[in-house]
Amino acid sequence: MIRILKHPAFAKLFAAQVVALAGTGLLTIALGLLAYDLAGPAAGAVLGTAYAIKMVAYVGLSPVLGALAARLPRRGVLIFADLVRFGVALFLPFVDSVAQIYVLIFLLQSASALFTPTFQAIIPDILTKEEDYTRALSLSRLAYDLENLLSPALAGMLLLVMSYHGLFVGTAAGFLISTLLILITTLPPRPKSKDRPFRERLTRGAWIYLSTPRLRGLLAFNMAAAASVSYVLVNTVVLVRNGYGMGEAGLAMAMGAFGAGSMAAALSLPRLLEQLPDRRVMGTSAVALAFATVGHGLWMQNVGILSWPAFLGLWAVIGALYSAILTPSGRLLRRSAHSEDRPAVFTAQFALSHVCWLVAYPLAGWSATQGSQALSLLVLGALGLASTVVGYWVWTPAPKEVMHEHPELPEDHPHLQAHGGRRHAHAYVIDDEHHVWPTHG
């Protein structure tokens, strides 16, 4: 896996991702401390609103920003987004009201909604071999997991020698270093594309995404992953403190187990995906994840909480299954669009997957608060099972080359000339010549 870092462009972009993630991790810690300074016991409500604003920016703005940036140089788009995040991080130490937090978080997350899909769409243009791209996806998953594990430790060490306001400076430094790395990286030019009106650019990614069976399946599996893992992210702290009577160290151990499971899966996935199709890996993981969540809920309802070692083991398994669902996503997106359409499709994935979290997060919190921890697990597990069934139903296996006809095209159309006639087979993607997925060959 590490050998792909020998590719100079990818190595620099991966380093930019790592330092930006480290900065984001410091921001998460510092933002919690700032919210407590400003709101005291109501800090949880402040942070909840801030994270809701984050999701709204991701879901609502990413398609708009992606459409606006569709004709712009990709390096310029990435640098602009990073500089906006850098500027916001520098302003955060001077915040003195909750309203200012909300405004700055909206600006920062809007920049992230522009940066992330653009960044993700560049990688398959750099790593053109699927096995290299698969390793890059696993490496990216590892970077996210390491950020979750190491950022709290790094923040703790920095807080020994500075106030939490200094963490915002660390965040800004991460975004600035990311900017400099992108500046010195040779990026492939944006693929040539037709001059399309804004409305078409705005909806094109979602049209391709929702017209492609494997991407509809991906969305359903994303919902299954969000359903189960939202319980981990929202309710672990309550379960650890109230159920097991443990403090911050216990919470760190639980989230560490989850992260370790995710990292172990990311390390093993490249070899596994060489042997098994994506649908089997993702679908089997989604089924197992949903059953693990329902089983945990039934055990808690009828027996009580698991033993502490069993709980940590379960969280590691859930982390591994979660990683197995998410990591192959980029492979599906890469196969499902021409290079000119990939930024729009990655943007659609970014927005639609966060819709899943926008549903799952409140459901995890509401069901646990209004009902019980066991009820929350059962509700979320049932949602995960239903989503998995939908995923299998809408994602029917298809051959690499799909036989189809073009009765609507004239005989001299370039597409017919290139593929030898009106009826032909090739790797099928939704585009200007293929508006719907063929259902009868």
Automatic annotation (TrEMBL):
<feature type="transmembrane region" description="Helical">
    <location>
        <begin position="218"/>
        <end position="238"/>
    </location>
</feature>
<keyword id="KW-0813">Transport</keyword>
<feature type="transmembrane region" description="Helical">
    <location>
        <begin position="346"/>
        <end position="368"/>
    </location>
</feature>
<protein>
    <submittedName>
        <fullName>Predicted arabinose efflux permease, MFS family</fullName>
    </submittedName>
</protein>
<keyword id="KW-0812">Transmembrane</keyword>
<keyword id="KW-0472">Membrane</keyword>
<keyword id="KW-1003">Cell membrane</keyword>
<feature type="transmembrane region" description="Helical">
    <location>
        <begin position="42"/>
        <end position="65"/>
    </location>
</feature>
<feature type="transmembrane region" description="Helical">
    <location>
        <begin position="12"/>
        <end position="36"/>
    </location>
</feature>
<feature type="transmembrane region" description="Helical">
    <location>
        <begin position="167"/>
        <end position="187"/>
    </location>
</feature>
<feature type="transmembrane region" description="Helical">
    <location>
        <begin position="250"/>
        <end position="269"/>
    </location>
</feature>
<keyword id="KW-1133">Transmembrane helix</keyword>
<feature type="transmembrane region" description="Helical">
    <location>
        <begin position="305"/>
        <end position="325"/>
    </location>
</feature>
<feature type="transmembrane region" description="Helical">
    <location>
        <begin position="77"/>
        <end position="95"/>
    </location>
</feature>
<feature type="transmembrane region" description="Helical">
    <location>
        <begin position="374"/>
        <end position="395"/>
    </location>
</feature>
<dbReference type="Pfam" id="PF07690">
    <property type="entry name" value="MFS_1"/>
</dbReference>
<dbReference type="InterPro" id="IPR011701">
    <property type="entry name" value="MFS"/>
</dbReference>
<dbReference type="InterPro" id="IPR036259">
    <property type="entry name" value="MFS_trans_sf"/>
</dbReference>
